C-alpha cells in the first residue's frame, strides 16, 4: 500500500455462510475514482434481503471473495475525475449501483448511476395525471426538480411559491 493512502472500514465476507461470516475490516484502502467514476462518502446504506442469500452462498450468482455486500447507498461526493463533470465534491447523491459494495465508509460508483438526492426524491413522486401536475413548494430543490422532471414528461406544471421572489423563480423555470 502506498504511504499515506487513506484507509477505511468495511464489512467483508471472506467465506460463504451464516451471518457470522460478516467481518469488520479496518485497514482497507479507499479506492481512487477512475474516469467516469465518483467516490462517495457513505452516510446511509441499504440492507437488502437478497444479501442474506449472497453471503450464505445460496444466491444464483456468487461474488468473488473477499466481498463487500450491498449496492444501495446515499452520501456525499468525496472525489470525482475530470470526466465526471455532473458532480463536484460535497454533492449529496444516491445510487443503487455501487462498484465496491455499500457496507463501507466509501464507495465507488459510475457517474451515470449516481443521482442528486433532490432529483431522486422528485423522480420517486407519483405523477397520476396524463395532463398536468401541481408542485407545492416549487421553489425548493426537490420542488424545482419535480417541475423539471414533469416538464420532461410533457406535462403542464403548476407550482406554488410563498413569496413574490419565489414566484419569479418558479415562472423562470417554465412553471405556470
Automatic annotation (TrEMBL):
GO molecular function term, any single one: mRNA 3'-UTR binding
InterPro entries linked: ADH-like_N, ER, GroES-like_sf, NAD(P)-bd_dom_sf, Zinc-ADH_QOR/CCCR
Residue stretches making up the Enoyl reductase (ER) domain: 17-176
Pfam families per UniProt: ADH_N
SMART domains: PKS_ER
Keywords: NADP
Any single GO CC term annotated in Swiss-Prot or TrEMBL for this entry: cytosol
SUPFAM superfamilies linked to this entry: GroES-like, NAD(P)-binding Rossmann-fold domains
Taxonomy, superkingdom: Eukaryota
Protein name: Enoyl reductase (ER) domain-containing protein
Biological source species: Rhinopithecus bieti
Classification of source organism: Eukaryota, Metazoa, Chordata, Craniata, Vertebrata
Amino acid at each position: 500500500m502506498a504511504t499515506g493512502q487513506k484507509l477505511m472500514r468495511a464489512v467483508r465476507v471472506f467465506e460463504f455462510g451464516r451471518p457470522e461470516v460478516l467481518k469488520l475490516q479496518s485497514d482497507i484502502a479507499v479506492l481512487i475514482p477512475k474516469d467516469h467514476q465518483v467516490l462517495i462518502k457513505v452516510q446511509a446504506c441499504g440492507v437488502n434481503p437478497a444479501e442474506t442469500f449472497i453471503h450464505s452462498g445460496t444466491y444464483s450468482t456468487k461474488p468473488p471473495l473477499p466481498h463487500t455486500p450491498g449496492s444501495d447507498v446515499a452520501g456525499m461526493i468525496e472525489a470525482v475525475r475530470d470526466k465526471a463533470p455532473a458532480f463536484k465534491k460535497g454533492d449529496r447523491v444516491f445510487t443503487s449501483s455501487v462498484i465496491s459494495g455499500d457496507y463501507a465508509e466509501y464507495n465507488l460508483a459510475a457517474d451515470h448511476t449516481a443521482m442528486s438526492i433532490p432529483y431522486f426524491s422528485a423522480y420517486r413522486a407519483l405523477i397520476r395525471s396524463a395532463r398536468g401536475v401541481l408542485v407545492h413548494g416549487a421553489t425548493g430543490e426537490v420542488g424545482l426538480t419535480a417541475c423539471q422532471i414533469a416538464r420532461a414528461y410533457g406535462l403542464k406544471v403548476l407550482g406554488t411559491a410563498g413569496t413574490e421572489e419565489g414566484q419569479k423563480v418558479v415562472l423562470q423555470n417554465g412553471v405556470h
